[in-house]
Write a structure and sequence with these properties.
mainly alpha
Length: about 300
């Protein structure tokens, strides 16, 4: 238990380090965007490839993909009823749903549940990405009467332009036909991917903002309470009722403890919502998720 606590604390300390480096101006918030580009296009795909290599598709994995979609769709529907204003409806639909798996939960899972744990997480994130990287934006944009309408073709283009999503699909196909990644490729990807956890936590620290505007408190609380409430319910259902292996159920619970997606604030602006609630809620959800994941991992390991 003590070793688990020490490792979990290490993740928190790196987040704090990033935040401090930003405050003392050694690094800037924009450096977090640079790290995000490196993570999404280089270290995260390599970490996925090295950790999920050799996985075998089973019924639980297909179920995880479906749950990744359903958990998003359900909260998108809930978000629609949180306000009467069309633009705010769209904002709530985007920010109440979605899970930051690759940049946040994955470093924890690859440390404490390597191998099959990462494989299960990847399957959930395939379903999550289908909604979070395009599907939810398309629905919310339509509700908000945004001029930026998305077609099925543009949603697919958005999804497949994401390198992590492409790696998920490749891993799923390899697992389906039980093909392993060649040893030289695996060796290189393991070396590059080993830095993903540190970079992801440092990036989160750099992008973390703890400034809550009084005018935004109500909307921020709506987002956070909706996410925490329904995701807590999902956790209980997934852990105690689903006929999946214990490890798959643990990974589902960890995935549902993830903070808002990093693209939520961007998509909110794309539908025409320019206030600060999405960015504030994102930062607050990170703090909450750090506590949740640390406690859950100490219970599960």
């Amino acid at each position: 238990m003590f070793n688990v606590f020490v490792k979990a604390t290490g993740f928190v300390l790196v987040v704090i380090l990033g935040f401090i480096l930003k405050k003392i101006k050694v690094l800037e918030k924009k450096d977090g965007n640079t790290l995000a580009t490196i993570i999404m296009n280089i270290t995260l795909p390599c970490a996925l490839l090295s950790n999920a290599n050799g996985m075998v598709v089973n019924a639980a994995m297909i179920g995880l993909i479906l749950i990744g979609v359903f958990s998003n769709v359900f909260i998108v529907i809930v978000g629609y009823f949180l306000d009467q204003d069309a633009l705010k409806k769209g904002m709530f639909m985007i920010n109440c749903s979605g899970y930051n798996i690759g940049n946040f939960v994955l470093p924890f899972v690859e440390t404490f549940f390597p191998g099959m744990g990462v494989a299960y997480l990847c399957m959930f994130d395939i379903g999550n990405a289908l909604m979070g990287l395009g599907g939810t934006y398309a629905i919310a944009g339509s509700v908000a009467n945004s001029q930026d309408k998305l077609t099925f073709k543009s949603v697919c283009k958005k999804l497949f332009s994401s390198i992590p999503f492409d790696v998920y699909i490749i891993l799923f196909i390899l697992a389906l036909f039980q093909i392993k990644v060649p040893a030289p490729v695996l060796s290189i990807s393991t070396f590059i991917g080993s830095g993903n956890g540190f970079l992801a936590m440092l990036m989160i620290g750099l992008m973390l903002e703890i400034k809550v505007s009084a005018s935004e408190i109500k909307d921020v609380l709506k987002i956070l309470i909706t996410r925490i409430g329904f995701n807590s319910l999902f956790m209980l259902v997934c852990y105690f009722l689903l006929p999946f292996p214990l490890l798959a159920r643990k990974i589902l619970v960890l995935a549902l403890a993830a903070p808002l997606s990093t693209v939520s604030a961007v998509f909110s602006k794309k539908i025409g919502y320019y206030r600060d609630a999405p960015a504030i809620a994102n930062s607050m959800s990170i703090i909450i998720s750090i506590v949740e994941l640390t406690v859950l991992i100490m219970l599960f390991v």
